[in-house]
Structures are given as C-alpha cells and as structure tokens.
Amino acid sequence: MEISAASQDYIRDLLETHTGQQITDERRWRITTALAGIFREYGISNVDQLVCLLTMPGQAQLAQRVVEALLNNETYFFRDFPYFETLKNTVLPELRERRADSRRLRVWSAGCSTGQEALSLAMIFSEQAEDWRDWTIEIIGSDVSRKAIETAKAATYSQFEIQRGISVAQMLKFFSESEQGWQADPKLRSMTQFHVANLLEAPGPALPYDIVLCRNVLLYFEAATRARAFERIHHSLAADGWLMLGAGETALGQTSLFEPAQCGNALYRHSCEAVTRRRGTPRSKAA
C-alpha cells in the first residue's frame, strides 16, 4: 500500500518527537502493518486517512496509540544469554566487592519493554541470595511505551512469553500460574520498579546507577540523538559502573564517553576522558 510522502513524514516526525526513534526507509514497510489494528477500529484503510484524523483537534490519545503501535517491544528472558553469564560471573562479583561498604546496588534497564530483562536480573540475584544477603538491590526499568510498562508492572506473562529464555525449573521456581498467566514471584517484583520515561530522561531519583542496560534501543536513533543518549547514560552511571549494549550495537565511533571492557562483547566502562569530565569523581569502592 502506497503512502504519500507527506503522510510518511508526519508519522516519522510523530514517532521521533515522542521517542527519539526514527523510521528508516528500510523499516517503512512496518508502518501500515503496525497500524492495521487502528485502521480497523476507526474504519479507515490507509495512513493518509489516519494522518487526516491526527491533524484534527483533540487527538492526543490517538497520537499516543499510533506511537505505541510503531514501537518494537520485542524482548524475552535472558536475551543474549552469554551476556547475562558475564554479568553474573564477572560484573556482579566486582561490584559486590566495590560496594561492600554501602551494600547497595542500583541497575537501570533502559528501554525495558515488558520487563523481562529486569526480571532476568532479579532472578540472578535470587539465585545468588547468600551473596546478596542484607543488600539493597534496586532494578529500575523505563520505557516510552505505557502499555509495555503496564505489563512490566503486572509481571504477568502468557505461556508463549514465559517459555522464551527460561527453563521449566526456573519457570516453576520464580513464577506462579493464574487465570491471567504466569506471574513473577513477589521477591522478584520487590527488586524491580518500572516507570514510563524516555531514554533521554533518567528515571527515578538522581542517584548513580552501577549498571545500565541499554540494549537494542540505540540502533533506532540517528547519530545526534544517539550521542545525547550516551551523554545521559554517562551522567547516570557511577564512575566505576558498567554499560551493556545489545548484540548489534556498539559505542565505538559513536561516543568518546565509553570504551570496551576487556571481559566480553557489548560491555563498556567510562573512558578516561569521561572520568576526567566528571571533575574528579574517582573509581571508588562505593557509589
């Protein structure tokens, strides 16, 4: 189905204004597919007609629904499993030593979608319960999608969703089945908080995070917006913190604020330049 250039630009600008994400020419085909449900509901047949509706007064709710429909909320538990193994076996032991005095750890799952990434981390902490006894663990997830955050807060997943990434043993250990689906154990949910927020805005209190997971989000940004996102993460991450990107993403050539860690792909630390920019904030044993 052909879309007029003006309508395509309108939809592109709408998504970018609300989320910072872009619809590239390669992803143009997703527009009509993603909006098919809205077409049926409003009795229209194409994007041009939808744009006519969006330009009428009082259509803020429809605009939000269009944005939600265009977002890619693909996620599952322990996505890119080897990366979570590196977190468990390398990153967390180092931070446990560095934060021994404060006994507090804060993680930001940026672009958390429906919450599986944050709950995957909560499962790791639960499986290492003795190592983290008497610690305060905060896992904060944020996403621009209100619908995704509602699902994350409910922490309830369908049979299909619950089987993606975890074993039957983990499913039975950490989730309980109900008429609504499989709900995460209260202990997991007590470690997690979820907020609607743009990646370019830090969620929650303005305290440093020890780990930031920003995976499979930056690839949808143009270079300038991606640079702003790295700047936000830089200011939100503790001087000795860790950044994890997605398997298809890199900070190399994108920013001077981060450099690859030596322990595995997709993991980054603040660069020497970034630490200097923090004006004397040293890598210390406590955040």
Described by strand count, sense and barrel closure, the largest sheet is: 7 strands, mixed
Radius of gyration from CA coordinates: 20 Å
Strand adjacency order, main sheet: 6-2-1-7-8-10-9
Give the domain tally.
2
SSE string: HHHHHHEHEHEHHEEHEEHEEEH
Protein name: protein-glutamate O-methyltransferase
Keywords: Methyltransferase, S-adenosyl-L-methionine, Transferase
GO molecular function: protein-glutamate O-methyltransferase activity
Catalytic activity: L-glutamyl-[protein] + S-adenosyl-L-methionine = [protein]-L-glutamate 5-O-methyl ester + S-adenosyl-L-homocysteine
Features:
single chain; 287 residues; alpha/beta; Rossmann fold; 7-stranded mixed sheet; 3-stranded antiparallel sheet; 13 helices; 18% strand; globular; disordered C terminus; protein-glutamate O-methyltransferase; CheR_C; transferase
What does the model show?
Helices cover 43% and strands 18% of the residues. A hairpin with a 6-residue loop joins β9 and β10 (267-270). Strands 6-2-1-7-8-10-9 form a 7-stranded mixed sheet, with helices on both faces. A 3-stranded antiparallel sheet has the order 3-5-4. Mean pLDDT is 89; it is low at 281-287. It has 2 domains: 5-70, no CATH class; 81-277, 3-Layer(aba) Sandwich (Rossmann fold), CATH 3.40.50. The chain is globular. α1 (5-19) packs across α5. The protein contains 13 helices and 10 strands. By secondary structure, it is α/β, with parallel strands linked by helices. The N and C termini lie far apart (53 Å).
